[in-house]
Design goal:
By secondary structure, this protein is of the alpha/beta class. It contains 12 helices and 13 strands. Strands 1-2-3-4-7-8-9-12 form an 8-stranded parallel β-barrel, surrounded by 4 helices. Strands 11-10-13 form a 3-stranded mixed beta sheet. A two-stranded antiparallel ribbon has the order 5-6. Helix 5 packs across helix 6. This is DUF692 domain-containing protein.
Amino acid sequence: MSDNYNGEARRDAAASFSHTGNLGFGVGLRSQHYPELMSIDHDTVKKPVDWFEIISENYIDNFGYGRHVLEILRAHYPMVMHGVSMNIGSTDPLDFTYLNKLKALSDFVQPAWVSDHLCWTGVAGVNSHDLLPMPLTDESLAHVIRRVKQVQEVLERPIVLENPSTYLEYCHSSLSEPAFFTELVNATGCGILLDVNNVFVSAFNHGFDPEAYIRALPHQQIVQIHLAGPSDCGDCLIDTHDQPVPQQVWALYALAQQLTGGVSTLLEWDANIPPFDTLVAELNKAKQVLNGEMPAQAVHQSDMAKFSTPVVREMHQKTDLAHSLKPVAK
């Protein structure tokens, strides 16, 4: 792959995603479900899900039982790799040690695609272990375009980037997130992982229309949808991944599937993880939604005290900080 990622390469990338097609309905592979999944004869029993998504970092440099489970399951199910450490938006140099390990894992897993987030996770060599929002400007767009091209050179495939949930915006941002994504995919051929729960969370926190956000995206480049359940903390929503999917998120999911023509669906559940059959039952609600049946699930109302997110705690303890983080006037 040359440094000039030209129009022909972008068309090849689009063809690559199109060739992979709709994987159906999947869940994130979590260690809590290893015993049940390893007890299933996947050759003879009806498969409980169509595919799995793994957290890439859980399997990099992991050659123990988790790698064994992954080897067994990848022989029976399509796999997708989803990461949280690419740090694509940071001003730090790209971590080529990490990227080379990601490439090695990709060679082992042979995933349908490799995804991460449109965000930055650290600076000056310090990892925040959080998905931090990008300033959405022409300068940051050019910066991310250069880095996506570099990552795609290393991985030898187009990558897929997810819209993050955010809790603050930059007053000097000059582009909307859908406009930023549109320019990014046009320049690099990367795909979009549309997390409709993140759209719901960010829209509530910043006061924009979530349906207008989804309608403004380049739908032909959306290859996957994430579903999850957030928590309502009064004056903000938190992307907790520990609750059933609420009705408002299901409505956005139905809209996104209509606009894309149908793409792969993945349910995320990363805290208070339920038994596998409960997880699959929640995933199967997506099929009901596509048949016009909308689950009447309310957004979980939560006690703020249990969250570790420092911004949320500070907002409720310091009224001046809470005022400064109100949505930016457009």
